[in-house]
Design a protein that fits this description.
mainly alpha; two-stranded antiparallel ribbon; 2 strands; about 35% helix; binds heme C
Length: about 220
């Protein structure tokens, strides 16, 4: 903000404390000003807390580390226990990744949209461009022609049915609600088709989910 005249600058500076206060809605106590750093806005904080709730209540830590307790050692920082966090799928070994925002070994190098695309469409963030996807048909609406899917058993197929708001909240929590931990997890093995034959509509059902009621359900 570059005020053009002394008059407007005086006008703005008289309102600055109010503007600053309004922007710092998180813990608007005097202590948040003395630290010299701007606190996160309330809506971002709410988004992160919703993401934390989704993560804790969807057992992410049972594979990615820390179980269901964000205070546990190894919270979401990836495979450390080969009994519970490493999986043998046919001839392949797959490994739960480091989800903390470390740039070298975690999600630091992915955007929140790439994490959203991983959770909604099962696309590996590492090999999927950072674009808005509007189709589930390969080659259409930015859906990759040769999708590289996340290895089984990452349960994105169930979680793709969460709302946009919930999935973006998870991405916000992973990127901005966790401290980065430098912990390299070895890449998963996988088939040449990057699991595409495991994720056909016949195998996993359509997205969005079929209308209620189906033959198994009653009104
Ligand atoms: C049953 C075990 C399991 C659970 C539960 C699980 N994951 Fe995963 N997840 C995996 C595995 C295995 C991979 C590695 C996939 C690969 O290597 O392609 C993975 C990969 C990912 C990735 C991609 C990371 C990267 O660097 O490529 C994200 C993001 C992710 N999981 C998020 C989540 C979230 C969020 C939850 C909870 C809502 C969750 N996972 C729960 C097993 C799991």
């Amino acid at each position: 903000m570059a005020p053009r005249s002394t008059k407007s600058s005086r006008y703005i500076s008289s309102f600055l404390p109010i503007l600053f206060f309004a922007a710092c809605t998180t813990q608007p106590s005097s202590s948040s000003f003395t630290s010299g750093t701007m606190q996160r806005g309330q809506s971002r904080q709410d988004q992160i807390l919703l993401g934390r709730h989704m993560v804790v209540s969807h057992a992410c830590g049972e594979c990615h580390g820390g179980g269901d307790n964000p205070a546990a050692a190894g919270w979401l920082d990836g495979l450390r226990d080969t009994i519970t966090q490493q999986f043998r799928i046919g001839p392949f070994v797959t490994r739960a990744k480091n989800l903390t925002p470390d740039n070298a070994t975690g999600t630091g190098r992915f955007s929140e949209r790439q994490i959203f695309n991983a959770l909604r469409y099962g696309l590996r963030p590492e090999e999927t461009p950072d674009v808005a996807i509007t189709s589930t048909v390969p080659g259409q609406g930015n859906f990759p022609l040769h999708p590289h899917y996340l290895a089984v058993p990452m349960p994105w197929v169930s979680w793709r049915n969460m709302s946009d708001q919930e999935l973006y909240a998870i991405a916000a929590y992973l990127k901005d609600g966790l401290k980065p931990v430098n912990h390299k997890v070895q890449d998963s093995d996988g088939p040449a088709d990057f699991w595409a034959s495991s994720y056909t509509v016949q195998a996993i059902g359509p997205y969005p989910v079929v209308a209620y009621p189906t033959a198994n359900e009653k009104r």
